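Human: I wish I could look at a protein chain and see how it folds. This is the protein in question:
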Amino acid sequence: MADVTTLQSRFTTLKAEVGKVLVGQDDMLHRLLLGLLAGGHVLLEGVPGLAKTLVVRTLADALDGTFSRIQFTPDMLPGDVVGTQIYNPREGSYTVKKGPVFGNFILADEINRAPAKVQAALLEAMQERQVTLGDSTFKLTEPFLVLATQNPIEQEGTYPLPEAQLDRFMLKIKVGYPTKDDEIKIIDRMAGSGSEPTASKVMTIDEIMSAREVVRKVFVDDKVKRYAVDVVAATRDPKASGLAALAPLIDNGASPRASIALVKVAKAQALLSGRDYISPHDVKTIAHDVLRHRVLVSYEAEAQGKTTDHVIAQILENVPVP
């Protein structure tokens, strides 16, 4: 329990450091930390100007690791992300030029602007934690965390991520507008007379890796495991879960990868709450972020104005809690 309390304090310090730059958006920052602790990649979705890029860059500033920013564009090639082999005619040999994916924290800005080959190159690195260039395979250093952003309102010149690739992200966070009071603070901070604030490094890579080890040891009762599986199973077969009304609204449910992610992120949620065990409430708290990109709603649902979040909310209300 001492480890949990200490780590909770350290991550509170990290939040405060990022808070020197970021105004509001505490929920977004909290979920980024869940991804960091659970070792899963995060997709941030929101309209331009909501500090998606700023929060990722500031979080990287506060952590003692290498940071790469990749601005995705329609004319990119896979080599622009993972790197390439360069031929030296004088020596008749190839040398490897590593791409920006070789880092601890990768900001994939506007990932849906890149064509399928580029997305696949990045997502392969995300899944396998390695990159193959020519006949050589290079392991990516841990922690390796991809924090991707996408704009949901712009359709021209974009390539939406296929469901199978979306599934590689542990969390999908929807970013909303700040409150009026927060927006006034943003103006004061960013358009005031003083210089723009920056974050200092307050946590090392070793601390992050140690924190992940503690997260893995967080206790999960069998009843909570069963609850997590019941929630995911209800997205596949609503009728069997007593939710027949939802059946026409769902085309495809979540895979076992969602169950694994639910438990992993719930463990991180428990740690940030100062506990060494997870509760059903932890699962409910993070269920929307884990499931919203893994459940595909039908045309009928769209016609009724029902979103994935509506379906998940109905499931969480009706699946019995242990």
